[in-house]
TrEMBL record:
Residues 16-140 form the N-terminal domain. GO terms for molecular function: single-stranded DNA binding. Residues 163-289 form the Polyvalent protein metallopeptidase domain. This is DUF1738 domain-containing protein. InterPro entries: Antirestriction_ArdC (IPR017113), ArdC_N (IPR013610), MPTase-PolyVal (IPR041459). Signal peptide: none annotated. It comes from Lichenicoccus roseus.
Length: 314
């Protein structure tokens, strides 16, 4: 009987964390919908969104945790990308101010067939012999504490960021064709169509749009094999656009590129809200797929660089 009660309590706890995170992201999307500004877009100063970083480990958050912390930071106008639990701040000699509201994040526990647990991140569904379950906890931003000296973000000059973006996307190995006035991925020919470079306001805007289309490109069966039809049904097209939006945001944050609202995506906002309101796990799936796409793209670039380095050394 006690085990049944415990299982019910744990299931309720997981349902609560799905709802809390989904509600936070939905509220942020709703707040910016009128100006097409999403939680993953650049701030008012036009600077690239910084990936949230854990105070204790120094590692960046991933997947849905990145999205929910972007949403919390935008809603409360935080300027810092550093986050930590109450205890982590105490251990650093800092104090969370009284009355500050925590932000939810999630940690995934991998359950094997024997019932043993092992920590894992950003997974949503069962993988092989293991089952992943969500565990929620709370974090506070550096702007909510006293006694902590904020690190100064290091941002490369724009010319260097453009050069880095050019080299990065060259290393992906995707075929990009230019012409017309629309950007899109063409599955039949397995290539990306982009407007001429000169059609964009600046180079950073060009690469931000390219990041979106390259994320679409990863859906191919030979890459991430991302078929959202069975998961989202009639909403699969909107879900794929959300994955591409998030994947592009992750890539742009890695590269220090600004992500600005795209009016041509305004039509998707209501579809995204419909999906997220109706399914508290939808944003978890979308963020996990987007993170997998970003990881795949980085892997392609890393491989290309290793091959180039091996060739240069022979």
């Amino acid at each position: 009987m006690d085990q049944t009660i415990t299982e019910r309590t744990e299931a309720q706890s997981r349902a609560d964390i799905y709802r809390r995170i989904t509600d936070s992201i939905v509220a942020s999307i709703e707040a910016g919908a009128g100006a097409w500004r999403m939680p993953w877009h650049s701030g008012a100063d036009g600077a690239a969104p910084l990936l949230p970083v854990n105070l204790a480990t120094g590692r960046t958050y991933r997947g849905v945790n990145t999205v929910v912390l972007w949403a919390s930071g935008q809603a409360r106008s935080y300027g810092s990308a550093v986050w930590g639990t109450y205890r982590q701040w105490q251990e650093r000699g800092a104090q969370v101010r009284k009355g500050e509201q925590a932000s939810p994040v999630v940690f995934w526990k991998a359950m094997d067939r024997s019932g043993a647990e092992a920590g894992s991140e950003e997974q949503e569904d069962a993988r092989g012999s293991r089952r992943f379950v969500a565990r929620g906890y709370s974090v506070f931003n550096a702007d909510q504490v006293d006694g902590f000296e904020q690190p100064t973000p290091v941002l490369l000059p724009e010319t260097q960021r453009i050069e880095r973006a050019e080299l990065f996307f060259d290393g992906v190995g995707v075929v990009v064709r230019h012409g017309g006035n629309r950007a899109f991925y063409r599955p039949v020919q397995d290539c990306i169509q982009m407007p001429p470079f000169a059609a964009f306001a600046d180079a950073l805007s060009y690469y931000a749009v390219l990041a979106h289309e390259v994320t679409h490109w990863t859906a191919h069966a030979s890459r991430c094999a991302r078929d959202l039809g069975s998961r989202f049904g009639d909403e699969s097209y909107a879900a794929e656009e959300l994955v591409a939006e998030l994947g592009a945001a992750f890539l742009c944050a890695d590269l220090g590129l600004a992500v600005t609202p795209r009016p041509d995506h305004a039509a998707y906002v209501q579809s995204w809200l419909k999906v997220l309101r109706g399914d508290t796990r939808a944003i978890f799936t979308a963020a996990a797929k987007a993170q997998a796409a970003a990881d795949f793209i980085h892997g392609r670039v890393d491989l290309a660089r290793r091959v180039e380095a091996d060739g240069a050394s022979t």
